[in-house]
Design a protein that fits this description.
Ribosomal Protein S5, domain 2; 293 residues; four-stranded antiparallel sheet; alpha+beta; 9 helices; binds adenosine-5'-triphosphate; single chain; Alpha-Beta Plaits; globular; 2 domains
């Protein structure tokens, strides 16, 4: 039996970062949202071992791939022996773009294996395995709209935003997340994270409210040195986005549109410049389905 999942990308509607802690990690204060730009992952039981095939040949297919590592940790933590899995990963989410592609793949593999092996551990334990793989993994497993604190793993669900038309654009080279954090440290030092108390989604009634609430501290250090990301943001704004902002540590940027038609035109304009652009909407978490061979 094959089981598949649509693993959504995430964007940050708000992202502020605190100083580096004794454990080497930064605290974050973030509002994350899953969007309908998906990697597709299929798993199938095998007698032993883990194998991974990936549509993106630039990505590793061993323990360096978060999807592989998720399977390894799942078997280890759930005590399952004498079983294996083959994983097929069809990448659509641009890599190293601030869209949590690796984290959502890892989260989806955990949910898939949990289903495939008849829920051998609790959901809390599964989320814990996710948190150990990466701070964004637990959010990717639950999805929707959420306030994420700590390293990103302390999740408070928020009232889901109404479906919004979005365009995600990505041009130029990828941004390494650790390098982006170093740039923040150099620029801000010990500044504490702002608390987005006004990020009660129930109180976001207008574009103005949304405009006031949206923020990403990484824009201030990444956009000045990433001309393709700034160009994509400008094109989104000129094409009629009500709001446009970089996601995570970039360089992907997203635009929020009132009409699907305007969003489609923005995609065409972005693609004409050589950028990668996707039309999508806000959505809920991973979607799991049986895949009849
Ligand atoms: P972050 O979670 O650090 O913000 P990101 O969303 O910016 O990451 P990813 O697409 O997750 O970026 O890629 C970050 C790095 O993770 C890449 O350099 C890539 O080699 C590695 N990686 C490992 N597994 C995966 C995967 N399944 N998909 C994408 N990248 C992966």
């Amino acid at each position: 039996m094959q089981l598949s999942a649509l693993a959504p990308a995430k964007i940050n509607l708000f992202l502020d970062v605190g100083p580096v802690q004794a454990d080497g990690y930064h605290t974050v204060c973030s509002v994350m949202q899953t969007v309908s730009l998906y990697d597709t992952i299929t798993v199938e039981k095998t007698p032993s071992g883990i194998t991974l095939q990936c549509s993106d040949i630039s990505l590793p297919c061993d323990e360096k791939n978060l999807a592989y590592r998720a399977a390894l940790n799942f078997f280890r933590e759930s005590g399952i022996e004498n079983a294996g899995v083959s994983i097929t990963l069809n990448k659509k989410i641009p890599v190293a773009s601030g869209l949590a592609g690796g984290s959502t793949d890892a989260g989806a593999v955990l949910l898939l294996l949990h289903r495939l092996f008849d829920s051998p551990i609790s959901m809390d334990a599964l989320l814990q395995i996710g948190g150990n793989l990466g701070a964004d993994v637990p959010f990717c497993m639950t999805g929707g709209t959420a306030l994420c604190r700590g390293r990103g793993e302390v999740i408070t669900p928020l009232t889901p935003l109404k479906p919004i038309h979005m365009v995600i654009a990505r041009g130029g080279a990828g941004v390494s997340t650790p390098a982006a954090y170093h740039m923040l440290d150099a620029a801000y030092g010990k500044k504490l994270p702002a608390k987005p108390e006004d990020w009660d989604t129930q109180h976001i009634q207008s574009w103005n409210d949304m405009h006031t609430a949206m923020f990403n501290i990484f824009e201030s250090v990444v956009l000045p040195i990433h001309k393709e990301a700034s160009a994509c943001k400008k094109i989104l704004e000129e094409a009629g986005a009500r709001l446009a902002m970089m996601s995570g540590s970039g360089p992907a940027v997203f635009g929020i549109f009132e009409s699907e038609h305007t969003a489609e035109l923005a995609v065409t304009k972005l693609q004409a410049t050589g950028a990668t652009a996707f039309l999508c909407k806000t959505c809920t978490g991973p979607h799991i389905f049986y895949n009849k061979k």
